[in-house]
């Protein structure tokens, strides 16, 4: 059997990993098999590099990771930036003020650094799950430059309410639901699909030769750009509708089943 695709783009949380953040041996073996037959494996995740690169290493691979939902593309080998979408710090001030006024936890991210204004016990546990180690800083004198992502964290009900309210705001920046408990804010052009397109152009790979697998709203642009976009069985219906096919859930080794069904010819 030979591979039908030159590049395989994989989301991490809810896709490669089970809900308990475990990468199973079945998934490792299937991804390593694809890589061994010549596919370029690219992780496309909402995580920053500090949370994405260890997963790539756990897979026994190196190469490129698309991080922060496409806002920063990183070479994992030497941790250099291929491309990033910087936000204008002043455009974030209204989001920061909203979170302060409503007691919502938030973090600010450059390509490699995560910063918080304060830390709660719930946030500390959450960051531990994603292998993130934010530093506590005082933003009252101004926001840092080079910011690529602003993330808020809270209950699903709270995030639903914030999402509805922010939908009425001017569209200077773009926000996306990256999980039930998270909303990410980016540069208006940043997305997994756009970053995947940039990388494909750099490497001279036609989109028809790209397979992508994901499970959430922030994966839709990636699934739509790829020649074959596969949604996980645990995806919301809107994500499934955006895909070319649907596989099993992340608790059923869906990535392995998708690769074995669609990647070979």
UniProtKB/TrEMBL annotation:
InterPro entries: Cof, HAD-like_sf, HAD-SF_hydro_IIB, HAD_sf. Gene3D superfamilies: 3.30.1240.10, HAD superfamily/HAD-like. One of its GO terms (cellular component) is cytosol. SUPFAM superfamilies: HAD-like. One of its GO terms (molecular function) is phosphatase activity. It comes from the Bacteria. It holds the Pfam family Hydrolase_3. This is HAD family phosphatase. It comes from Paenibacillus endophyticus.
């Amino acid at each position: 059997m030979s591979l039908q695709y030159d590049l395989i783009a994989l989301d991490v949380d809810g896709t490669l990993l089970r809900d308990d953040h475990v990468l199973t041996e079945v998934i490792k073996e299937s991804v390593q098999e694809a890589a061994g037959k010549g596919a370029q494996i690219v992780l496309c995740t909402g995580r920053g590099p500090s949370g994405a690169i260890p997963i790539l290493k756990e897979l026994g691979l190196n190469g490129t990771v698309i991080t922060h939902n496409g806002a920063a593309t990183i070479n994992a080998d030497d941790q250099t930036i291929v491309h990033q979408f910087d936000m204008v710090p002043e455009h974030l001030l209204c989001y920061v003020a909203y979170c302060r006024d409503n007691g919502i936890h938030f973090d600010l991210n450059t390509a490699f650094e995560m910063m918080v204004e304060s830390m709660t016990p719930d946030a500390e546990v959450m960051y531990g799950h994603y292998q993130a180690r934010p530093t506590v800083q005082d933003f009252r004198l101004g926001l840092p430059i080079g910011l690529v992502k602003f993330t808020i964290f809270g209950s699903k009900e709270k995030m639903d309410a914030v999402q509805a309210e922010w939908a009425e705001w001017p569209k200077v920046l773009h926000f996306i639901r990256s999980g039930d408990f998270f909303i990410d804010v980016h540069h208006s052009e940043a997305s997994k699909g756009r970053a995947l397109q940039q990388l494909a152009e750099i490497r001279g790979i036609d989109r028809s030769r790209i397979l992508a697998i994901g499970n959430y709203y922030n994966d839709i642009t990636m699934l739509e750009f790829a020649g074959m976009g596969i949604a996980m069985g645990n995806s919301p219906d809107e994500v499934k509708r955006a895909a070319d096919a649907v596989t099993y859930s992340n608790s059923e080794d869906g990535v392995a089943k998708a690769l074995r069904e669609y990647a070979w010819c």
